[in-house]
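Retro notes (design track)

What went well: tokenization of the new backbones is finally stable.
What didn't: we kept losing track of which sequence belonged to which structure.
Fix going forward: every design gets posted as structure first, then sequence, in one message. First example under the new rule, 241 residues:
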């Protein structure tokens, strides 16, 4: 994500909308900080953090076994999730870092979609605009074994099953803090890192959120993509090891 950029939110795409600003003059000609471990979390001074947070820990060997239980405590109820280190070690490492740092506390889930082939709730931006992130990026850990989406005869789009937890991004290797939860089977290009699942109790909460619908606008009284009709506030994000 270099220079000025805006990733458009569209059906079939789970993007982070980015409006970058120039780096401070003192930073010109210098390389942004990068962690030394295998994940290589890279600071993005041109895209400052929506909420101050340091770069994640990046040990010589990223934990890549086991799962971690996490929860989003929302106005609709608790959404328990299970992060899978074997699927995406660097992503889980980053998400836990943001969770434990309080990055997700008192934030909103800014986007709900209800397309026939894309049904997700997107969260993780403290600014609530869809443009915010943690002030760093890191590489993709893309799935390689997803089945073709039944709705796509070309086989290009893959099946992101109901209950999938995955990262939104603004292009290759631009993961940050925004993530999405799939509440109905969806068809997407396999360009989004999957790093866990939503537990059944969390799916019941997601279903209630989806049933409340999407906020209408003067331009679109019956939208299929936009802010949830009733705000979805994450009061607290927790992790249990």
């Amino acid at each position: 994500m270099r220079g000025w950029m805006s990733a458009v939110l569209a059906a079939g795409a789970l993007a982070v909308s980015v409006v970058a600003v120039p780096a401070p003059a003192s930073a010109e000609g210098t390389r942004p900080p990068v962690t030394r471990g295998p994940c290589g979390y890279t600071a993005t001074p041109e895209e400052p953090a929506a909420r101050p947070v340091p770069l994640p820990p990046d040990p010589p060997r990223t934990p890549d076994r086991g799962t971690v239980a996490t929860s989003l405590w929302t106005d609709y109820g608790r959404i328990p999730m299970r992060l899978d280190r074997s699927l995406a070690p660097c992503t889980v490492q980053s998400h836990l870092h943001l969770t434990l740092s309080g990055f997700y506390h008192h934030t909103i889930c800014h986007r709900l979609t209800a397309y026939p082939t894309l049904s997700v709730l997107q969260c993780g931006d403290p600014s609530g605009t869809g443009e915010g992130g943690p002030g760093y990026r890191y590489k993709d850990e893309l799935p390689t074994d997803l089945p073709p989406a039944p709705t796509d005869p070309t086989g290009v789009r893959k099946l992101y099953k109901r209950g999938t937890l995955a990262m939104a991004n603004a292009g290759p290797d631009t993961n940050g803090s925004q993530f999405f939860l799939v509440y109905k089977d969806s068809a997407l290009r396999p360009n989004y890192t999957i790093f866990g699942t939503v537990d059944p109790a969390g799916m019941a909460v997601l279903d209630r959120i989806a049933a409340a619908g999407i906020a209408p606008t003067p331009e679109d009284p019956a939208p299929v993509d936009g802010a949830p009709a009733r705000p979805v506030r994450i009061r607290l994000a927790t992790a249990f090891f």
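Added context from the reviewer: Helices lie at 89-100, 200-212.
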